[in-house]
């Protein structure tokens, strides 16, 4: 399938207020992460009221434009359009990909959270532009999705998927060489950056590990 939207990022930060150290502001942490090399941000925080989530999306749009980074909204086409985001990130409980595409048009991105090889293949056929594949390693936030996929499954995912794959779940600095060897487009992280007392430094270290030869 021809994909009109090339994926031009490798360090994908997923927002989570719960991951922040006590007293830290989400927007401040994300701006520091952008300064450190994050080149795409997903607004998750799905429990926020819609009005607060839209306001946060608009503030993130301003930040991501300043740093020439992508912004995707988890699950909400309406907020993505209202905030002029680059696209959405969908999952099993979201709109079908075809319906999201009809609302977003051809130029915005559609990412998808895949938790197995069959699901990854299916959403590629349906027109997703890229997918996260998780959990690669154990992480509490993904425990509900079953046992970790492991590096062998991640490698199969990257080798068989016609779209770019991002490793998600328990990714930290020490695991980047292994996931790079599996063939990923990049990594998606939450706590590896947002739980750090120094988000800029954490992001910079991860980005260096992703891009060094």
UniProtKB/TrEMBL annotation:
* GO molecular function annotations of the record: magnesium ion binding; thiamine-phosphate diphosphorylase activity
Q: Write down the required cofactor(s).
A: Mg(2+)
Which Gene Ontology cellular component terms are annotated?
cytoplasm
Query: Which pathway is it part of?
Result: Cofactor biosynthesis; thiamine diphosphate biosynthesis; thiamine phosphate from 4-amino-2-methyl-5-diphosphomethylpyrimidine and 4-methyl-5-(2-phosphoethyl)-thiazole: step 1/1
Question: Residues that bind 4-amino-2-methyl-5-(diphosphooxymethyl)pyrimidine, according to the entry?
Answer: 42-46, 74, 113, 142
What this chain does, per the entry, is described as: Condenses 4-methyl-5-(beta-hydroxyethyl)thiazole monophosphate (THZ-P) and 2-methyl-4-amino-5-hydroxymethyl pyrimidine pyrophosphate (HMP-PP) to form thiamine monophosphate (TMP).
HAMAP family given in the database record: TMP_synthase
Question: Which family does this protein fall into?
Answer: Belongs to the thiamine-phosphate synthase family.
Name the record gives this protein = Thiamine-phosphate synthase
